[in-house]
Amino acid sequence: MKKILTPVAILVSTFAVTAAHAEAKIDYFAGIDAGVNFGGKQSTKNFANKNDKESNYSQKAKAAGVYGIHGGMTIDDHHRVTLGYNHSEQKLKEIAKTKGSKGHLGRNGVAGEEAGVDTLKLQYDYVYNLTNNINLTGGAHLGYQWYGKSKETGRYAPKNAEKDNTDSMNGMLYGLQTGIEYNLDQWTFGTELGYSWKDQNLSAVGAKTKNSGEGTFLTSVSYHF
User: Fold this and answer.
1) Distance (Å, rounded) from C-alpha 138 to C-alpha 6?
2) Cα(224)–Cα(189) distance, integer angstroms
3) Residue 87, domain extent
């Protein structure tokens, strides 16, 4: 993870210093985002009994909407630094109950789970001017996620399920993104596809739960000052 975070930090610092130079051309902007997260997964492992199906399983996350705000600056038309905040939901799918086969035990059903997720993200993109109005973008990002209280859902959840605190799953994320955008006067309309790896773990006695990475598709509207 340090091998990825260090180059990104150097890039952001370099362009921040460049922006302070009097001769640099700086374009400030702010806007809104909306899209969807997809492909996430949460895995739980029991180190005391690695062959126990009850304690070792992975739950896939449903695609979930994401929305947020962003602001930043573009330096000399090509180097863009953006700070953004967004909110989404982590919706883990339930795992169906299975029957035992000869010599093997079945597995009880595992309830689904929902929790709110807030993300603060710093992003760098190189902007390539394809035409006067169309740009291609690509770069890297890093950030931090906070998880709200979670609630079990589905057939296997308790009837009176209450929300539990999942703050200990909070953690870093880092990744890559690419996109295309259209400029119209002082407005920019864009789409972006990215992937984030997550450094988010919850350790208990003899067990560990981990969030894997996920993809994000975003559309955005930005106004240039």
Assistant:
1) 18
2) 11
3) 2-224
From CA 68, how far away is CA 199, in angstroms rounded?
22
Alpha helix segments (H runs only) across the chain: 2-20
Residues 6 or more apart whose CB falls under 8 angstroms from that of 89 comprise: 64, 65, 114, 115, 116, 117
Q: Residue 184: CB partners within 8 Å, gap ≥ 6?
A: 133
Per residue in 80-133, pLDDT (tens digit) is: 999 999 999 988 888 876 665 555 555 677 778 888 999 999 999 999 999 999
- CATH value at residue 129: 2.40.160.20
pTM: 0.79
Under 8 Å between Cβ of 149 and 164: yes
**Count of domains forming the chain:** 1
